[in-house]
Write a structure and sequence with these properties.
Length: 146
């Protein structure tokens, strides 16, 4: 679970600082991965590489609002609903977070990495390392052939 403290000015002009929570369960990530042809990760990589602005905006909005929820007082549940996400999207805190992710690659990567369950983060790092190794092998083979 990712706790993000955001400072913002509400619509009455009051300065606020609040904690907001974001999280994806393994089940949600699996469902999202299979929600797009070729997988969500490939989709995100493709729109990032092509710098498709409108699609990048849509995916940031989707990730933020799907990850947003409220932790139950007893800590047993992370409650998500369309109503909670809609209410959050109507705050200036959402606007600040959205703009940050849409304009800062490092912050966007940080957000995505933090909403993934901690035990899956190691798996993701391992897969990325394997992918980097394969890419290096392909480049080396291309250099030899070229």
């Amino acid at each position: 679970m990712y706790k993000r403290t955001i400072s913002y000015t509400d619509f009455d002009g009051n300065q606020r600082e609040e904690d907001f929570y974001f999280h994806f369960s393994k089940a949600e990530l699996l469902e999202m991965e299979h929600s797009r042809e070729g997988g969500l990760q490939n989709y995100i990589e493709r729109i990032y590489k092509t710098q498709d602005g409108p699609e990048l905006m849509k995916i940031f909005k989707e990730l933020i609002l799907r990850a947003y929820g409220e932790k139950s007082l007893d800590g047993k549940r992370f409650v998500k609903s369309h109503e909670l996400s809609a209410a959050f999207s109507q705050t200036e805190a959402y606007s600040i977070l959205f703009m940050e992710l849409a304009t800062d690659d490092v912050k966007a990567a940080e957000f995505i990495n933090n909403v993934i369950p901690s035990d899956m983060q190691e798996e993701v790092k391992k897969l990325e390392a394997e992918k980097d190794l394969k890419l290096a092998e392909v480049r080396a083979a291309s250099a030899i052939d070229g």
